[in-house]
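Hey team,

Filing this mostly as a record. A colleague (T.K.) asked me to run one chain through the structure pipeline before their review meeting, and I want the input and output archived in the tracker in case anyone asks later how it was produced. No errors, nothing strange. Just documentation.

Input sequence:
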Amino acid sequence: MEPPVEKDDDLSKSRSYWVVAFRRLKRNKIALVGGCILLFFIMMSLFAPILAPYSIDVMEMENRFQSPSNDHWLGTDEFGRDILSRIMYGGRVSLMMGLVAVSIAGTVGVILGVISGYYRKIDIYIMQLMDILLAFPSLLLAIAIIAVLGVGLTNAMIAVAIAVIPSYVRVVRGTVLSIREKEYIEAVKALGVSDVKIIMKHIIPNFLSPVIVLSTLQFGTSILAAASLSFLGLGAQPPTPEWGAMAYVGKSFLLDAWWMSLFPGLAIMLVVLGFNLLGDGLRDALDPRLK
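Output structure:
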């Protein structure tokens, strides 16, 4: 009697690929450091109502401009509000801005990339639009978009997302172009399988890895861009505790109250560093050439 044939051979191969990638990621100490940094800030932001030692809205004018001390570990601002508490709550806003921007950019970019790579007649129009967007520096493009949409937190997230979309389109399009010419894709087409099924089953799984790595790297970039917009007064508006906005307010008191800008700036730097380290580790772990 012949041995039973494996029914889920493709599924088992896919699972083994992700298992190997996860094991490789666990051995990457630099990626683990980045993950720990991100986990620290995520947990700090999620549990800010429990961990924050002071209210972020109550003004205590008698405590204004206090330097870091046992009572206020990171000092106070011009209204006597605790900087540490505002950084904890500000992480919610900054991380949410990055998450929303990457989610919008990833969704739109993947759809446009698949359409552009699979349907060549539409390709030239989509890529011309992407080339126009790429002709502008991302921050300058975001500022121009906000000039049209208006100042505000929501518009800042949309502006950052639009500026990030071309990177997703180019990555996905390049992968789709290489896959659609494969012989097994031609064979599947000859069997009469619809384009939607081909894209869902044979094309999307092939660009998941680079999209995941790109999203990790773009997360840090998006947070930095959103913080830059807030620093310029185009994103989150006071009294919203957002890291970029806090650094912007602190620059007016830089000589006398350096801690007002330093600590929010360090938070931005560490979060971006964490995403970059984790992104580099994911790129190495998911690279099939290292398998």
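Quick notes for T.K.: The chain is about 75% helix and 0% strand. The domain at 41-53+74-290 is CATH 1.10.3720.10 (MetI-like fold).
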